[in-house]
Amino acid sequence: MNIVVIVRPAPGWEKPRFNMQTGEPEVSPGTAVGLLAWGEGTWVLNPSDRNALDLALTLAENEADSKVTALALAVHDPAAAQEALYAALARGATGAILLDTPDYGSDPAVAATVLAAAIRKIGADAPVDLVVSGAEAPDGGPDPLVPMLAEALGWSQITGVSRLTIGESPLRAELVSDNGTRTLEARLPTVVSVARQVSGPARYTHLGRELVAYRKQGIDTWDTARLGLDEAAAGALTPRTVIRRNALADAPTGERLTGPVEESVAVVLQSLKAQGRI
Amino acid sequence: MDTPTPANGIWVLATTAQAALTPTSRQLLASARALGDQLGAPVTALLLGGLDGDTPPGQEAIAYGADKVLLLEARPLAAYSAPAYTAALAALARQGAPEIVLLGDDALGRDLAPRLAYRLGAGLIQGADPTTLEVDSYTRAPSAGVRRWGGRLTTTYAGTGDRPTVITLGAGATLEPYYDDWRYGDTETVDMAALGVQWPSSLIASDREDVPAPESTDWHPQVAAWRALRGAQVVVVGGAGLGSAEGFALVPRLAAALGGEWGATGEAIEAGWAPAEREVSIRGVTVRPDLYAGLGVSGNPEEVVAMQQARLVLAVAADPHTTLFRWATWGVVADPATFAAQLLARLT
Q: How does residue B332 score in pLDDT terms, banded at 50, 70 and 90?
């Protein structure tokens, strides 16, 4: 089975600073970036994508002649995308490709177009059966990538999957939806988004393997020309939404009650009554 | 042939439950109505899939703000699938593209909206706060704010005005559904054959027969808990700060006294004080209540993301530097178990 996993970096440190133009976390200048620099600047695999990678690796283990290729778009901070790919290699991906294109990450539709071109390129040698990625974007919100990518490729899609096994169709996906747990038999090829809650055996990665990944296995870097994205596609690469502004969360405007508990209770009761809640 | 002309303007993808509009759809129509009035554009409610003989809630949709209701019924639409819905809506858009398409930020919206946006060549704003939804009267471009990074940053996205924009709205606890019984409008069934929909050939195979049907919600305890929490207007969540199982036991009682539901953080569940299906965090349920009370909840990003759209937030913690206080309408520095016991005593 030929599987492609789309990975993204997420900030691994507690309190990111935000670039107020792009709304993405950024590293202060002068910070050492890399595996051994704990604290600010440590990028990790987006947890949702990590789950996706794990599901793909478990599937691949059970099928002969399987490949799991990690794919990342160089957005905002290209070093961050590299960190995500090295982490994917350390977890067991058989290959890693970095798409070194201009910053297309801001608009998910453009990202989907570029990634679809890359997947078609990968599929030129051996057809890609399955594309997996996380259902959650690094910023914690729902990620539109999988449905858009499915449309760009013309494939079916399954979102919010918690488990992937070989079934009759040949793929069986379990998802927890608003109505409960469902099991679907899926035909290939398809694009799958993986939830944060996954079932199945846990996978671990060893720090030593991460260092080996750095030294031995390379990351293939592809650029726009290699992807065959030319002027004709330029229209498809125009952002469809713009960021008007980014604003940090307001300072708390609420009341702070630090007195004796009886008084606090009284104040809260009063306020709740005023709000019509009791 | 009498093909109803779909309106330009604003489309709302409405969903039904038991032949009535879902609460999400009512709120979407309310937002659409506000935008429609501002732009002078019609609001069309779209119902896809057929309703098994039940009378479609056309008049209900009109009363909640639609100017027109379109029913799209076809065999490929009988069971939901994103490729089929996208194909049908794209064919409809060929007759008159909408300016704005509204869906809810639920499982359906997350599965369908991105695919539809890509097909229509539209921009996408996902998970927007409905109270920030605006439209520029001059450029007719919509804009909306999205809370990201655990609520630390709000990014306002805007459409470009020269192409449609698909927006999914989170359930805003503050948005009152609009209702006017005197409104009138048409409910029309779209002539699907005339639309010339290019149905996709590869659809996901049907659900396995031996799995219980999704309609029965009681068979899975997790589902019952999640449904209750999702719809609740009051949610009381207990965390590690309560100190013990006895302290945590106050949480369900307080929730009952306030007329709401109760939940727990991951730490409380790991300590064995609550079952896993009650987790209110990024791993569990996201709640959007009117009142959220966090007792001994630290407010780290995982927990905040699951409650950041609550209107009123009561945070009780012993440590004055607890992160949850940043989001609190009332931040009480006290022992959570003591506070909960006294509040409960005063309420009952």
A: very high
From chain B residues 201-220, the ones with a CB under 8 A of any chain A CB are 202-208, 211-212, 214-215, 217, 219-220
CA distance B94 to chain A (A): 17
What's the angle, vertex CA B19, arms to CA B17 and CA B21, rounded to 5?
60
Enter the pTM of the model. 0.79
Which has more pLDDT, B317 or B56?
Answer: B317
CA B305 to centroid of chain Cα atoms: 14
SS (H, E, C) chain B: CCCCCCCCCEEEECCEECCEECHHHHHHHHHHHHHHHHHCCCEEEEEECCCCCCCCCHHHHHHCCCCEEEEECCHHHCCCCHHHHHHHHHHHHHHCCCCEEEEECCHHHHHHHHHHHHHHCCEEEEEECHHHCEECCCCCCEEEEEEECCCCEEEEEEECCCCCEEEEECCCCCCCCCCCCCCCCEEEECCHHHHCCCCCCCCCCCECCCCCCCCCCCCCHHHHHHHHHHHCCEEEEECHHHCCHHHHCHHHHHHHHCCCEEEECHHHHHCCCCCHHHECCCCCCCCCCCEEEEECCCCCHHHHHCCCCCCEEEEEECCCCCHHHHHCCEEEECCHHHHHHHHHHHHC
What tokens were used for A123? 């599929």
Q: What is the nearest CA distance from A102 to chain B, expressed in angstroms?
A: 19
Decide: B235 and B280 in contact? Cβ < 8 Å.
yes
Three-point CA angle A233, A130, A82, nearest 5°: 65
**Alpha-carbon gap, residue A180 to A167, rounded angstroms:** 20
Please give the torsion angle defined by the CA atoms of residues B58, B141, A148 and A200, in that order, rounded to the nearest 10 degrees: -80
Identify the residue among A18, A151, A184 best suited for mutation to test binding to B, counting B beta carbons within 10 A and taking the highest: A151
> Which among B100, B164, B143, B168 is positioned nearest to A246, based on CA atoms?
B143
**At residue B173, what are phi and psi to the nearest 5 degrees?**
-65, -20
**What is the rounded CA–CA span in Å between residue B27 and residue A211?**
52
Q: Cβ contacts of residue A17 below 8 Å, gap of 6+?
A: A25, A26, A28
Q: Which residue has the tokens 């909306």?
A: B144
Instruction: Give pLDDT, residue B218.
Output: 33
Kind plus residue range of the DSSP H or E element containing A96: strand A95-99
Q: For residues B164 and B122, is the Cβ–Cβ distance under 8 A?
A: yes
Per-residue pLDDT reduced to its tens digit, A240-267: 999 999 988 654 457 889 999 999 999 9
CB contact under 8 A, B124 and A109: yes
- CA B260/CA B278 separation, integer angstroms: 13
Q: Which helix (H) or strand (E) holds A159?
A: strand A156-166
Span B123-181, pLDDT tens digits: 999 988 887 899 998 888 999 998 887 667 889 999 988 889 999 997 644 456 778 88
Question: Considering only CB atoms, which chain A residues are within 8 Å of B212?
Answer: 180
In the chain, the amino acid numbered B117 is A
Token pair of A20 as six digits: 């107020």
Q: A216, exposed or middle or buried, with CB in 10 Å at 0-12, 13-18, 19+? A: exposed
Backbone angles phi, psi at A70, to 5 degrees: -90, 135
